[in-house]
């Protein structure tokens, strides 16, 4: 069984960190600086019976120039190519305009969306629950999975969910 999964979200939410963790090697470029991930970098997670092709995307932001515009559209273009979208948001920053912009595009795309709330190592459980409740008021998600991509917390669960949806 196999499937395509893209990871979408604002810059610096931890998309590349998750991909690196899942693949167990540094395949995407990581940095604190926004916009280091310029291309769709694919990692293929393979077990005996399953194959998940991950597509990392440039962080979605309000484009200031033609290159920015191209990168944002290239991230959105993956919505037409994948079976599942991981919409990643940080647990420690309130939903903002950038997230709302992404949510509008996700609603237009006819693809299941899993909300991945990352960086749970940085917040109190109450703040995590409030964040999840807030995003749930905006859109119906297929699943909601809190993780720490950095520490690897709950990433196995996320993989299990993706596998069960292949
Ligand atoms: P991207 O722009 O969405 O690809 O984000 P990156 O993967 O490049 O991560 C941006 C920053 O967030 C880096 O400094 C990461 O180390 C940090 N980061 C990513 N995931 C986590 C996490 O789960 N917890 C914490 N504390 N930091 C994280
Ligand atoms: Mg990145």
From TrEMBL:
The residues listed in the UniProt record as binding GTP, with positions renumbered to this chain, are 9-16, 56-60, 118-121
Mind naming one GO cellular-component term on file for this protein?
Answer: cytosol
Positions of region (G2): 35-39
Give the Era-type G domain ranges. 1-166
Question: According to Swiss-Prot or TrEMBL, what is its membrane topology?
Answer: Peripheral membrane protein
Region entry G1: which residue ranges?
9-16
Recite the UniProt keywords alphabetically.
Answer: Cell membrane, Cytoplasm, GTP-binding, Membrane, Nucleotide-binding, Ribosome biogenesis, RNA-binding, rRNA-binding
List the signal peptide residues: none
Region annotation G5: residue ranges? 147-149
Does the keyword section mention Protease? no
Keyword Ubl conjugation appears in the UniProt entry: no
Its localization reads: Cytoplasm; Cell membrane
Which BP terms does GO give this entry? Answer: ribosomal small subunit assembly
Q: Where is this region: G4?
A: 118-121
Query: What is an example of a GO molecular function annotated in this UniProt entry?
Result: small ribosomal subunit rRNA binding
The ranges of region (G3) come to 56-59
Assembly and interactions? Monomer.
Chain's role: An essential GTPase that binds both GDP and GTP, with rapid nucleotide exchange. Plays a role in 16S rRNA processing and 30S ribosomal subunit biogenesis and possibly also in cell cycle regulation and energy metabolism.
Task: Name the family the entry cites.
Answer: Belongs to the TRAFAC class TrmE-Era-EngA-EngB-Septin-like GTPase superfamily. Era GTPase family.
Official protein name in the record: GTPase Era
| Gene field | era
């Amino acid at each position: 069984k196999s499937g395509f999964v893209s990871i979408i979200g604002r810059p610096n939410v931890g998309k590349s960190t998750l991909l690196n963790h899942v693949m167990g090697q540094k395949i995407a470029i990581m940095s604190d600086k926004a916009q280091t991930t310029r291309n769709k970098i694919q990692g293929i997670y393979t077990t005996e019976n399953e194959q998940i092709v991950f597509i990392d995307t440039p962080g979605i932001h309000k484009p200031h120039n033609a290159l920015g515009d191209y990168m944002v559209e290239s991230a959105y273009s993956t919505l037409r190519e994948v079976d599942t979208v991981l919409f990643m948001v940080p647990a420690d920053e309130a939903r903002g305009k950038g997230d709302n912009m992404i949510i509008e595009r996700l609603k237009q795309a006819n693809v299941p969306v899993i909300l991945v709330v990352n960086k749970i190592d940085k917040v109190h459980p109450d703040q995590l629950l409030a964040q999840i409740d807030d995003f749930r008021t905006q859109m119906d998600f297929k699943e909601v999975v809190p993780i720490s991509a950095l520490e690897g917390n709950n990433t196995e669960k996320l993989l299990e969910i993706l596998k069960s949806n292949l």
